[in-house]
Amino acid sequence: MQRRANMRSHEPRSSSSCAACKFLKRKCTPKCQFAPYFRSEEPKKFAKVHKVFGASNVSKILNEVPEDQRDDTVNSLVYEAEVRLRDPIYGCIGAIASLHQKMVELQYDLILARTRLASYVDLYLDDRGSTMMAPIEIPEANRFHF
């Protein structure tokens, strides 16, 4: 479904300029390399990428990437630009470090929960491994036969 949405950006566009050409105040040509990725309806998308990377660098990056990977490349540039504008010092590394810290905390919580569960299970088991609670009787019709 994601691919289908991305393919729409390569369809012939109306006569309006792409977001990049509007931002750069230049005429958008039919061969504009930005047009498939920065449609006129998304002006902030290019503005963010331009602010962080510059139009020349984005152009060079797009030229170096195979055409079938350019959608993903632009999406990565947009994400990196948004994160870099929110956190100019660490950018994506800050987001990754934050997520890693959260993962470590959740792993610790999981170990703690498993340890507590094991201690509660031990309370209900005697030394022979049988339950101290009365056994539950399963009707014959509901038993599995192997």
From TrEMBL:
Residues 16-117 form the LOB domain. PANTHER family: LOB DOMAIN-CONTAINING PROTEIN 21, LOB DOMAIN-CONTAINING PROTEIN 4-RELATED. This is LOB domain-containing protein. PROSITE patterns: LOB (PS50891). Signal peptide: none annotated. It comes from the Eukaryota. Belongs to the LOB domain-containing protein family. It comes from Buddleja alternifolia. Pfam families: LOB (PF03195).
